[in-house]
Amino acid sequence: MKSQFDLSNYPLWTALVTPFDADDNVDYNTLEQLVNEQQQANNGILILGSTGEGLALDKHEQRAIVEYVSALAPTVPLMVAVGGFNLQEQLAWIEFCNTLAIDAYLLGSPVYAKPGDVGQTQWFDALLSKAQKPCMLYNVPGRSAVSITPKVLKNLQHHDNFWAIKEASGDIATFEAFRNAAPNIAIYSGDDGLMPYFAQAGAAGLVSVAANAWPEQTAEFVRRSLAGTFPNLFTTWTSAVNSLFSVANPIPVKVLMHAQGKLATPHLRPPLTHLELPCTQALHSANDSILSWN
User: Fold this and answer.
1) Domain spanning 7-231+265-271 has what CATH number?
2) Which residue among 3, 70, 112, 226 is least enclosed by CB atoms within 10 Å?
3) Cα–Cα distance between 211 and 49 in angstroms, integer?
4) pTM
C-alpha cells in the first residue's frame, strides 16, 4: 500500500517533539497546534522518534498519540517511528499502525544490542516485510551504538517499500558509501547543521529538529541548500543550530519552544530534564538570528 502523498515532494520532515503538561501527561491540545504549524509550512511530520521521546512513552500513550495525530488528517505526510529492542513488539507496533492513516515508517536500528550485518539485515527485513507503507531506515550510531553498513543496504534494497535512509552519523564518507551501495534509495540528512554539505553530495532532504522551533525558516533553508543558493546564510544557520544540541536533544529545542510560547512547559520525561540547560542565552541569540531572516 502506497502513501497518499508523493514523498519526494517533501524534502523536509520535522521530528516532532511530544508536548507534556506540568503533570507529565501528553498535552494533546498543544500537539494539535504543533501539527497545524507544520502543515502550514508544508513540512512532513515524524512522530515518536527520539526527538519525540518515543521510548519514554508507554504503549498506551504511543498508540493514543498515533491515533490522535492520524485522526487529525494532516494535509502533509505523517511518518511514525519504529524502534526498540524486542522484534516481536516492533512487528506488533507496525501491525497496529498499518490500520491507521499514516504514510511512512522510520525504522531504527535495535538499541543496545549492537548486531552485525546479519542481525541488522534480519531485523530490517522483518520490519520491511510487515510494513505496508514506504520505509526510511535510520542510521544513528550515536544513539543505537551500531552503524548500518552499506552491505546491509545492499541486502535490503530488493524491498519495494525501502524508500529512504536517514543518515545521522555526521560522516560525509558514510553518506557517499550509502549512495554507492543503494543508488536508488533516497538519503536524508539527519543533522540540521550538515544539510548544505549533504545537499551538495546528493541528499534528498532533511529530517529536522530545528523545524520544531523554526518551521518556515527551516523549510526555506532546505530549499536553498538543495538549490545551492545563498551560501552566506550557511554559517549563520550552523551557528544557530548548534545551540539546539548543546545538551541532549530534545532538551534545548523544548526549552526554546517554551520561550517562544509554543509549549506551556519545557517538561521532558526522565532521564531527560530541562534543568540540564541552566543558561539559555545562546538559544535566544539563535532564535533572534533565525527569525530575522527575510
Assistant:
1) 3.20.20.70
2) 112
3) 14
4) 0.95
